[in-house]
Design goal:
The protein has 26 helices and 22 strands. The chain is of the alpha/beta class and about 700 residues long. Bound molecules: adenosine-5'-diphosphate and magnesium ion.
Length: about 700
Amino acid sequence: MDAGAKNKQDLNTPVQYVKGVGPSRAQTFAQLGVQTVGDLLEYYPRDWVFAPTPVKIAQLQPNETVSVIGLVESTDYQSYRRTPLFEAMVSDDTGTCRIVWFHGGYLRNQFQPGQVLMVSGKATIYKHQLQMTNPKFMVLDESHTRPDLYFSGGVYPASARLGSGQIKRIIVPLLDRVDDWVGELYEKDILKKLHLIGRQDAFRWIHMPPDEDKLAKAKRRLKYDELFLMQLGLALRRYRVQRFSAAIPCACSDEMDSRIRKRFPFLLTEDQNDCIAEIVRDMGRTEPMNRLLQGDVGSGKTVVALYAALLAVGNGTQAAIMAPTEILASQHFISMERYLKNSQVKRVLITGGLTGKKRRELLEQIRQGDIDIVVGTVALLQKDIEFRKLGLAVIDEQHKFGVHQRAELRKESTPHCLVMTATPIPRTLAMTAFGDLDVSIIKHAPPGRGAIVTRWVDRCHQQQAYDFIRERLKVKKQAYFVYPRISSVEEGDNEIKAATNDWKKLSQKVFPEFNVALLHGQMPSTEKQQIMTDFRKGRIDALVSTVVIEVGVDVPNATIMVIEGADRFGLAQLHQLRGRIGRGESKSYCLLFAETENDAARARLDVMTRTTDGFEIAEQDLRIRGPGEFFSARQHGLPDLKIANIIDDYQLLVMARKQAFEMASADPMLTREAHRPIRQTLLARFGDSLGLADIA
Ligand code: ADP
Ligand code: MG
């Protein structure tokens, strides 16, 4: 490639045109996620090595790690030894050194006398002779103008078709152009205040660190940038929601507060009160509330949500409560009915079975504002329901998070929005995935809950486990038997088949004296409802089910849960499932049936037997799986982090978040001249996905 063409390259140049790449390697790079020159610069090493600068042989000191360049004088392969070895005598103008590679037979064809060799390793004295054992080595030729480079610097994540060394030889020459391509993002005083080095140095040093200290500085700078840009994107998104939409402020007088509290037959816990205080503050403003309410199953979120709904209704607006499934929606409705007996508040459950004239009438009443609280599935409520004055939308996501759902609702009107999730999200993730959401947490469940004992049961102790369960059933306790999702083409069918087969076995052979029922996802909705009702009323002793029961059933008398094939469930799901027991006052038992040699699965089961604390489980889950897998990045809007890690770099994340939110509030459109590089970088990186296009 001529010099002119080379000069035209920039960060957006396809990697194919980089020296040493070409169309075929470009394909390999594409598989590594590298499309452009900019991606190459951000293809960071996964590790770094530091080889010392070469010294003369006469300077060698025993037990020091050094590099030496010398001429190969002779070679010898000694295969007759107990441990065969290959040796080379290497000399420079100051002395000779013996180099030994044990089991070095493979080197016979690589080294010949007369070659120039560079070795790096530890020197020793052996039988009065200077020696290096098993050093790293490289045969040099005239193309190696910087031989030290190949022992030092980055070790890249390689693929079968592209080794780390090859990647390095492609990236390193690009570093000469960094000054032309990469601009600084921040003003000088910010760099100084945050102790950050310049961005150009950071790119050079991350790929070719002169020493450990500079490498650390480069890492810190690039991690900071990644975290800062992510947080700024979130901050700006949040700003837009607040600025371009207005909600109906819902004031909360003492009188209203006590009227709402009278609805609950218990005192609210401290955690519930804290959450309510935060919600009341949010809902009193014209800025739409955007809050995530987190807490384990059974921790009392529904009560908090109902408080918010009654506050909205008390202010003359309507509230919508949405759940992912019909079972869960009806659960919400049932529990709401418990609290709202004899209340004036008009509430309705919208179900899929509701059709025709009745449905039309109901929708009309909602449109007229004659109904205060509407409960239903997300799908149903979003479809064609028009509210007169929607003040609050509560979305119970159980263990999913739907950035999209929030967005969709916002278009129609701008209610305050409360998203509930039963998946405990580690703080670090809440900050990154939900950086534009406020978070309220219920950490402690209401008092009076029995402990849950969890055991991991091997197949050979199954009979004992069944005997134990029988004793519990005899004293009128109830049990769940849950079956895993089976990953195969006919996933759903197999899951049902496994549950059905075991149901036959359990009901006919193991527990013939008890009423054992089967519940699975493909049953008609009315049948499912009936079984759930029977179970709740104690007419069914044991419920064999696929994971459908995972969502929302509240049967305090069910104190036993058997999870079959527990190794196939993720930690979050195991925790969710287990949350179905331990709801009453007596002790509960969770039996995990699993046999596996899989380390990750064993780690999960261990965590489950060790703790019932959802936040700890979530942290462990994050550790076992890593953030990338914890949530699939795209689905949850988690930007892809290349060098920063939200667990290890938590302090940096907090710092970046503070800076980002300050910047967003000081210059929300990023129109200041000093912020231009940041705005451009954000646009290039996130494009329209953050709704930034109209800022440019
Ligand atoms: P979640 O929605 O978080 O799963 P719920 O709000 O459904 O939890 O509450 C679970 C159970 O705890 C319900 O039976 C509810 O009546 C009860 N509960 C909630 N708050 C309290 C409290 N402060 N004191 C006693 N019981 C409570
Ligand atoms: Mg609930």
